[in-house]
Design goal:
Layout (H helix, E strand, L loop, with lengths): L1 E4 L3 E5 L9 H22 L6 H13 L7 E5 L10 H25 L6 H14 L6 E3 L1 H12 L1 E4 L2 E6 L4 E7 L5 H4 L7 E5 L2 E2 L5 H8 L6 E7 L7 E6 L1 E4 L3 E6 L4 E6 L7 H14 L4 E5 L8 H9 L7 E6 L7 E4 L11 E5 L6 H11 L4 E4 L7 E8 L3 E11 L24 E2 L6 E2 L9 E2 L7 H6 L8 H6 L2 H4 L11 H13 L7 H15 L6 H21 L1 H17 L1 H11 L1 H10 L2 H7 L7 H9 L2
Parallel strand pairs: 14-15, 15-18, 18-19, 19-24
Antiparallel strand pairs: 1-2, 2-3, 4-21, 5-12, 6-7, 7-8, 8-9, 8-10, 10-11, 13-14, 16-17, 16-21, 20-21, 22-23
């Protein structure tokens, strides 16, 4: 047991071990990484966090790196006064973290199981970040690489999405990003299985490690050993890495009714707004009269790109968003600088539970200025802005520094710290800027028109490998080169395709377990402990009845399964664009938007609603 007294009482219960000379490494890691992180949180985090809270969280995190029997007691005395001036705050922070370093040194010296200095420090940082919001994160190489790819839209590599699949325990080429990637030019096919990367087998390799091996400096080679359906032997491809450009606008089209459609998947810096502008100009030239702008599943990106994209739809000098944070003296206002590129053409923005951040800035501005309708599901509710800070050239801290507010003044955030002073009064009533409709904050963007997308079912989820990583849809569709070599974009799965699929999954020992069957299996387990013979006949009858129910589930899911088979086979044979083109014709949410846009009365009717989301709220309250 260790006791350290310095105005603060600390008791650490640790098993003893001989003192080891690791102080230099620990001191370096602590000062360069953990202390630097704590200082940046102190100076720039959106809300003031007391030194005591930060230290307690850090120590708690550090002890997670130890065995279950190591424990501590931390008595910090009287609470730190929240209104203390910065001089007192800085002094207390330094005192606390001097003690924090002593705690880390005691662990380093005396813990029974050796824990690396960098591990202790990373766990301490993770503890501190647990006291903040979920969007403040510490990023080292892999996470930093993924973050940069998402926000900048390019990387050095091959240009396809990957997934680990069983029972092969291999890395699958899930989909090619587009037809102009290094992989596509080298003849890689969606559905190929990567069994080795250079000299490293992919068996039991996780996706992150595989991605690290395939990414690299442009103009350097990597050798993939591949297995392809319809090809009896494995074969090798040497591919030269290039700078892969990701496309922000994944699909655009003009429907026969002159409705334009743009699907945006990200908000990459100096890229996404240019792609959206170009797509709008092309659709205008083709005769577009109205627009559907799809932000479903778009997790956001750069705020500046959101402002530039909103500028394409709103009149000049309109507020798009404004931000405020403790580290900034003035509120930052972002306004449109040009007239709307498509004038006042009717538009609908599609959103769902995956639409976040920059997607919410754009849809919030469209809604608050009554410029168009929002259709879909309530969005994520990420109403904060993060910036990255370099930490000793080893990592970056992505830290929440500000909250953002839509033109009506509302914060749509629902995941910030509960004691945050900047996210506003969630009970306050806000109004749209033009028509004065009531809108609410705190719960993401509430759509004008509530509509859920395709409903997943237990059968569908099991077929796509939910939890098992054994996706039957993928394994079936990767047989396309052998079974469906001449598929054109006009292909549609039918009864014969479904029959072949069912035979395929049966051969692959797929066993659909419905909720009823799962409960019956538990009942059988319990019954085995008692006199099972008494209920054996009843259980057998139930099994037969459940088999009939499960067969009915296949019938009930017929259209959903046919859609997935069509989508996957088109993607494997003709690429993502062909799959997107098909989906755009059968997507129920997209079709609902088209039907509203092409009926002026139906479109205008929604702007007469006095309160956005009230209709859905009332229908929810009326449900039994």
């Amino acid at each position: 047991m260790f006791k350290i007294f310095r105005q603060i009482c600390l008791i650490i219960l640790l098993a003893s071990t001989p003192l080891m000379a690791k102080q230099v490494a620990l001191r370096t890691e602590f000062n360069e990484i953990l202390w630097a992180t704590a200082q940046n949180i102190h100076h720039y985090y959106i809300d003031k966090v007391s030194p005591d809270t930060l230290m307690s969280a850090g120590v708690r995190g550090m002890f997670r790196a130890l065995d279950d029997h190591s424990d501590y007691t931390l008595d910090l005395g009287a609470p730190f006064p929240p209104q203390a001036d910065s001089r007192i705050y800085n002094a207390q922070l330094k005192r606390n973290f001097t003690l924090f370093q002593r705690i880390a040194r005691a662990i380093d010296d005396s813990a029974l199981y050796t824990v690396r200095a960098d591990t202790l420090v990373r766990f301490g940082i993770a503890g501190m970040l647990d006291a903040l919001d979920p969007y403040s994160v510490f990023m080292e190489k892999r996470n930093l690489d993924n973050f940069n790819i998402h926000t900048k839209g390019h990387y050095g590599g091959l240009g396809f999405r990957i997934q680990q699949v069983y029972p092969d325990s291999a890395i699958a080429v899930w989909a090619l990003l587009h037809e102009n990637t290094p992989a596509a030019r080298a003849g890689i096919k969606s559905g190929d299985l990567i069994v080795a990367i250079d000299d490293s087998t992919t068996k039991h390799m996780d996706v992150g490690d595989a991605a690290d091996l395939m990414r690299g400096e442009p103009d350097t080679p990597v050798t993939l050993t591949l297995k392809r359906a319809g090809t009896p032997d494995v074969f090798k491809k040497v591919i030269i890495r290039k700078k892969v450009q990701m496309q922000s606008v994944s699909y655009q089209t003009l429907f026969p009714d002159s409705t334009g459609y743009i699907k945006l998947t990200g908000f990459q810096l100096k890229k996404s707004s240019k792609e959206v502008r170009q797509a709008l100009l092309e659709l205008k030239d083709q005769g577009m009269q109205r627009l559907i702008f799809d932000l479903r599943g778009n997790g956001g990106g750069y705020l500046q790109e959101a402002v530039k994209i909103a500028d394409l739809f709103l009149p000049k000098d309109r507020v798009v968003v404004y931000t405020a944070g403790r580290a900034f003296q003035d509120t930052a206002w972002y306004k449109t600088e040009e007239d709307a590129l498509i004038g006042d053409a009717p538009m609908i923005v599609l959103v769902d539970q995956g639409s976040a951040s920059a997607s919410e800035i754009v849809s919030g501005a469209i809604q608050d200025w009554d410029r168009g309708l929002i259709l879909g599901m309530p969005t994520v509710g990420k109403g904060s802005v993060q910036q990255t800070i370099s930490i000793a050239d080893k990592a970056e801290l992505k830290l929440t520094m500000a909250a953002y507010f839509t033109p009506s003044g509302r914060s749509i955030d629902k995941r910030m710290r509960k004691d945050s002073t900047l996210v506003g009064n969630l009970d306050k009533v806000y109004r749209t800027q033009t028509l004065g409709r009531i809108v609410h904050g705190g719960g993401g963007i509430t759509p004008d028109i509530h509509m859920e997308g395709r409903e997943s079912t237990s059968l569908y989820n099991q077929l796509r490998g939910w939890r098992t990583r054994d996706p039957k849809f993928f394994h079936f569709s990767r047989q396309q080169p052998a079974w469906y070599p001449d598929i054109t974009p006009a292909f549609r799965a039918d009864r014969k395709t479904l029959g072949k699929f069912r035979k395929f999954v049966q051969q692959k020992n797929f066993d659909y377990i419905s909720e009823a069957e799962a409960h019956l299996e538990k009942l059988e387990e319990i019954a085995q402990k008692d006199d099972y013979k008494k209920i054996e006949k009843t259980v057998n009858k139930l099994k037969k009845d459940i088999d009939k129910i499960e067969e009915q589930h296949w019938k009930d899911n017929r259209e959903l399964i046919l859609w997935k088979l069509t989508y996957d086979l088109l993607e494997k044979s003709n690429g993502l664009k062909a799959a997107y083109a098909y989906d755009a014709t059968v997507d129920p949410v997209l079709n609902r938007a088209r039907s509203i846009l092409t009926d002026p009365q139906a479109y205008e009717k929604w702007f007469l609603e006095a309160e956005i989301g009230l209709r859905e709220k009332q229908s929810t309250e009326d449900r039994p």
